[in-house]
Amino acid sequence: MTTLIKGARVLGGDPADLLLEDGRIAAVGGRLSVTGATVVDADGLVALPGLVDLHTHLREPGREDAETVETGSRAAALGGFTAVHAMANTDPVADTAGVVEQVWRLGRQAGLVDVVPVGAVTVGLRGERLAELGAMADSAARVRVFSDDGHCVADPALMRRALEYVKAFDGVVAQHAEEPRLTAGAQMNEGDLSARLGLTGWPAAAEEAVIARDVLLAEHVGARLHVCHVSTAGSVEILRWAKSRGVQVTAEVTPHHLLLTESCAESYDPVFKVNPPLRTDADVQALRAGLADGTIDAVATDHAPHAVEDKESEWAQARPGMLGLEQALSVVVQALVEPGLLDWAGVADRMAVRPAAIGRLDGHGRPLTPGEPANLLLLDPAARSVVDPAALASRSRNSPYAGRELPGRVVATFLRGEATVLDGKALR
Ligand SMILES: NC(=O)N[C@@H](CC(=O)O)C(=O)O
Ligand SMILES: [Zn+2]
Ligand SMILES: [Zn+2]
């Protein structure tokens, strides 16, 4: 299989041709010509390394009515991703080598992106005792990221033990930072608006307190900590402080926390209910600045598909979570590239290079140079389109961007040299 991409702007630079052969980038240069190659016209398109998501909910096993490994993989490929980390809050929970290997195999069968299972930190996500972290790390799935996401590892002694344990195989604990005692019954960001809307508040301090505690624990035991879906200005400050001390901490922000604010809740439309909640405009600005200066390492989607009956109810009854894979890059273009906060190299760094490094993934987030695995996407930055949830590849419809016009269209995605998406359509 040989593909010749003509005239792509690698990281937004001057147009060049890329030859993909045997799963690798064989050559990059001006006016390459090869007989028998499939030619892809990339005039005006930006080439980026295939995106890597550290935080995806694929819902299989257990809620295949909301998403499967295959449908979520298709959504990912359409969004320009070549690897996604599948969160462990499935049914059964991914807390054994057996379950993570099952998810890993389903990903291989779908063949659209590399599906990298996340292992649960505690048995059943119950926060009582550690799951078999070593067995998951040694399994065929080679788990390196462990998370009870959906739940916080609230017990500090258990969190400390998890951090110590994963050091042995260079793993990382990805914390859903939410002090449960401060968020009982919480529905949205705590502030004047929650008071006016009569919805129980989720205070910024419930996130920040756990991050502060965990960076101190990570420093004390010398382990790697990753913070999921950072949502407040205060969290960015704590991370900046921790990094200045040399703590091995990394953090992610979601596309929705980079674009949307708590004011979405005024509609009482539960599509905007999410954990952690949408915050204030000042938080959004601080998150953008934190991502731009590298305090926040990565954009991660927290793609959280939910079935209609779990989402289209009264606000208080609806499950938290929103779709993200297919629009992630467009949101980053709107929130950071267009305002001049990130260039294309910066987008590649925060959406491919650093997430691959945090997950210790080989072969992803690599430069687009000869000899490297041909994992890449082609983006039309000039295209704009209105999001139609009915047209999404996800099995669920809970997109917070419905009816919004967003910039950028993923035209093609290549996984090890094979197109998974061409002309904006998934090939399998
Ligand atoms: N983000 C959410 O609101 N929901 C996630 C869980 C999580 O990421 O905490 C889910 O699994 O639905
Ligand atoms: Zn979470
Ligand atoms: Zn999540």
TrEMBL record:
Active site: D302
Positions annotated to bind Zn(2+) 1: H55, H57, D149, D302
Full protein name: Dihydroorotase
Record domain Dihydroorotase catalytic: where: 46-233
PANTHER family: ALLANTOINASE (PTHR43668)
Function: Catalyzes the reversible cyclization of carbamoyl aspartate to dihydroorotate.
Catalytic reactions on record: (S)-dihydroorotate + H2O = N-carbamoyl-L-aspartate + H(+)
Originating gene: pyrC
InterPro entries: DHOase, DHOase/Allantoinase_Hydrolase, DHOase_cat, Dihydroorotase_CS, Metal-dep_hydrolase_composite, Metal_Hydrolase
